[in-house]
Amino acid sequence: MKSKYAPLVKLKKKDLDRAEQNLIAANNALANASGALDRAYKTLSTLSLPIKGSVSELTQSQMMIHAQHQTIEQCREWLTFAEDQQLQMQQAFKAAMIDYEKFKYLELQEAQAYMVKIKKEEAKMLDEIGVMTYKRESI
Questions:
Q1: pLDDT in tens, 55-108
Q2: Domain of 57?
Q3: Residue at 112 is within a domain
Q4: Is residue 62 part of a domain?
C-alpha cells in the first residue's frame, strides 16, 4: 500500500541524512581544531629562551614564542567556531529527526487505519458468505 505520506517520509529521510552528514563533518572539524590546539601547545612547550647568546638570538626566540602564541589564539578561535558549528548541526539534526519521526508516525497510522478498514471489509464479506451458505443449506 502506498501512503500519501510516503513521498514526505522519503524527503524527510533525505533531510535527516543530510543533517547527519553535516553533524559528522562538524564533529570532524571540532576534532581537527582540538588537535591543532593541542599541537600548538606542544610546540610552544618545546620553545625556550636562550640562556646564552646574542641579542639577535633572544629576539628571534621571542618572535617565535610570540608567533606561537598567535597560532594558539587562532586555534582557540577555530575551536570556538567549530564548537558553535557542532551545536548548530546537533540542533538541526534533532529537528530533522523529529520531522522524520512525525511523518513516519503518520504513515504508520495511515497504514494501520487501512488495515482496520480491510479487516472490516473481510469480516463483512465472510458474514455475507456465511449467510448465503446458511440459506442454501436451509432450502
A1: 888 899 899 999 999 999 999 999 999 999 999 999 999 999 999 999 999 999
A2: 6-100
A3: no
A4: yes
